[in-house]
Amino acid sequence: MPKISASPFNTLPADFAGVSIEVSRGTDEKVRPNDFVKGYTCDRPLAFQITASISCPDIFELLELSKDARIVFVARGRCRTTRFTISEQSSPLDGAKGRDVKFDLTMPAGMIAEQLSLEFFICLEKKGTKNEDFTPQQHASILWEKKERYYLEGLGAMFPTTMEEFKESEGGKLAAWRVDWSK
């Protein structure tokens, strides 16, 4: 049984075994946290498919939620550079059985840069009839959270570039690059 952290009410640690998340781009391309998202270009949307396997009975038992309580799974994409945020929420989950939650999280073209944080939450959607001191009571109380960072790796240059043949006076065939700065 996992260790429960100290808080005003019981919450689950980020490494809680009752929740596993898989992030992919398309059917075969799995994306791992702290890894590069290959082939990103800012002129196209960036879509992730997220699958969360959630063991609801374990969550309800560990947090002492009553059988009539409901929880939801939330996925949020955030880019600190552009301040863009998008989120999706599952339908309410009860404590009867485990369940897979699947949805797409799509960042519109041009809305993210450098890196992206994917944040996952399990929140209380409806409190149950149990009113004990250490049982979550407030709507939207965060019961579990995990944050992952992804770095964006583009196909092209990070700034506009053009091909150029250099004059002999500028290095000729030995010249590799040149910066042309104009205000």
Short description:
This protein has one helix spanning 56-62; strands at 19-25, 29-30, 36-40, 46-54, 70-79, 84-89, 99-107, 115-126, 142-154. The chain is mostly beta strands and 183 residues long.
How does this model look, in words?
With 183 residues, the protein is mainly beta. Helices cover 4% and strands 40% of the residues. The chain is elongated and about 85 Å long. The strands form 2 sheets. It has a 5-stranded mixed sheet, with no helix packed on it. A 4-stranded antiparallel sheet has the order 2-1-4-7, with no helix packed on it.
Which characteristics define this entry?
183 residues, mainly beta, five-stranded mixed sheet, four-stranded antiparallel sheet, 4% helix, elongated, disordered N terminus
Question: Based on DSSP secondary structure assignment, what is the total number of beta strands?
Answer: 9
Q: Tell me the structural class.
A: mainly beta
Estimate what percentage of residues fall within beta strands. 35-45%
Shape: elongated
For the largest sheet, list the strands in their spatial order. 3-9-8-5-6
- Termini separation: 62 Å
Instruction: Please tally the helical runs, counting DSSP H or I stretches of 4 or more residues.
Output: 1
Rg value: 23 Å
Mean pLDDT over the residues: 83
Spell the H/E element sequence.
Answer: EEEEHEEEEE
Helical fraction: under 10%
Which oligomeric form is depicted?
A: single chain
Question: What does the main sheet amount to?
Answer: 5 strands, mixed
